[in-house]
Write a structure and sequence with these properties.
Elements (H helix, E strand, L loop, with lengths): L26 E3 L7 E3 L4 E8 L5 E7 L7 E5 L4
Antiparallel strand pairs: 1-2, 3-4, 3-5
Bound molecules: zinc ion (ZN).
Zinc ion binds next to loops.
């Protein structure tokens, strides 16, 4: 069975999480005062699952500082 992990509705933007291989799943505000969120630029260390409010799980990649909320985290290996 293949879960449909990648067809999340766009209105999940408010949760500020996303699923993209090799990039940290969290959004952060940039340091220049624009107030615009941007993708966390930290290098990915972990890969695991994140449970959305509705109970669905998405595959997420995380830097070391954003591991909280990642379930069954494992070390992400390059390639
Ligand atoms: Zn991060």
């Amino acid at each position: 069975m293949t879960p449909d992990l990648y067809d999340l509705p766009m209105d999940y933007y408010a949760d500020a999480v996303f699923s993209e291989p090799g990039r940290c799943w969290r959004m952060v505000y940039d340091g220049e005062g624009s107030g615009r969120p941007m993708h966390c630029p930290e290098p990915v260390v972990w890969v695991g699952n994140h449970r959305l409010a509705g109970g669905r799980q998405i595959r997420v990649w995380s830097c070391d500082g954003h591991r909280e909320g990642v379930e069954r985290a494992a070390v992400a290996t390059a390639g």
